[in-house]
Amino acid sequence: MKNFDSVFNEQALKQDADWVMKRKHELFRKLKEMPMPRERDEEWRYTEIEKIDVSGTELSDFQPKLTESDVIFMDMKTAIRKHPELVKKYFLLDGAKEDKVSIASKIFWTNGVFIYVPKGIDAGILSSKVILDKDTMSYTLIVLEEGASVRYFEETTGNAGLMTDATDVYVGRNASLDFYVMQNTGDSKIFSNKNAFIDKDGRLQWVAGCFGGKLARLKIDNHFREPGASAETNSFFVGSGTQHIDITTNAIHIAPNTTNNISNKGILRQDASSVYRGMIKIGKEAQKTISYLSDNTIMLGEKALANSIPGLMIDANDVKASHGSTIGQIDEHQLFYLRSRGLTREQAEKLIIEGFIEPSIEMIKDEDLRDEYRKAVEAKAA
């Protein structure tokens, strides 16, 4: 692997506008002080990072679909040029715990997506699609003002050596965001880091499906900054062959009276492996918090391997919080019952996989989008 700091240096920042360059330099100083993640680090256990080459990345294909004239929805470079004062208010704010790969993506991205929904506007459904045909490094920024709402579908397909993306989401007071993620690439290595900051009575729903990638890592951090903030996070994956899936979903409760529910579900076939990490962190000021986390993985292959690392860090005394985790082989009694009804073992396994994931897909409000996820699950279960 090339030396990380020799690949990305300050010379690469000189083409930016002054205010953009200033923000990037602030992060660059932090970047230089950080070590490259290693498998022995707690947040990277069970995932090999040492062999990853993070050089030479760029956005290959961004295809937006616009639905609302009052909403700003465009690529990041254009947004900085056309709406500098608006982007500047939120651009690259340093408010989350991130690793070196994520920070590098925020500094050295070549493009990305910018979404801004004004106060009180319902933007309907927005969607973007990135088709990987080359290494990619991107940065996405989503801002919802007070009372705004949008459903956003982010799809990644194609095949490349490496993709890294960093996403910052700001959900204003009484705003509502449904963020649907579908990662369905070939043999790429995917590193996706998403941070959300939720204000008073704001509501955020994540539905994230991971199906492709030789190595796919997704990290979602929800920061509950004001009372009434709430989030529902549903992640799921189907891994096969020698795929490795790495998912982290964290809830950081800062203010009192906030609500969180996290669910992760996984299917591992053949020699696939996975690791799930989930942390509920409740600060001492975050009284009356309600926060739950569950992780459930089914292994279909004899050599499949799953790891689960849920956790709680609670500094308040008037909260409701818990976590649970299950990992196991497929229920042979279920298989026997289905096969007694005339199904082959392969057909029975396919039915079990689809039924296991379906409750998470049902969380999606749009029927057409639900069908997209069902097709992806069916393809992986075949």
Q: How would you describe the overall organization of this protein?
A:
α6 (332-340) crosses α7 (345-361) and α7 packs antiparallel against α8. This protein is 21% helix and 41% strand. The chain is globular. The protein contains 8 helices and 17 strands. The chain has a 9-stranded mixed sheet with strand order 1-2-4-6-8-10-12-14-16. An 8-stranded parallel sheet has the order 3-5-7-9-11-13-15-17, with helices on one face. It has one domain. The longest helix is centred in the last third of the chain and has 17 residues, at 345-361. The protein starts with a helix and ends with a helix. The chain has helices at 4-7, 18-33, 76-82, 84-88, 100-108, 332-340, 345-361, 367-381, and strands at residues 72-75, 113-117, 122-132, 136-144, 149-158, 162-171, 176-183, 189-198, 203-210, 215-224, 230-239, 244-253, 259-268, 273-282, 290-299, 305-314, 320-329. Residues 1-12 and 50-63 have low confidence and may be disordered. The chain has 382 residues and is α/β, with parallel strands linked by helices.
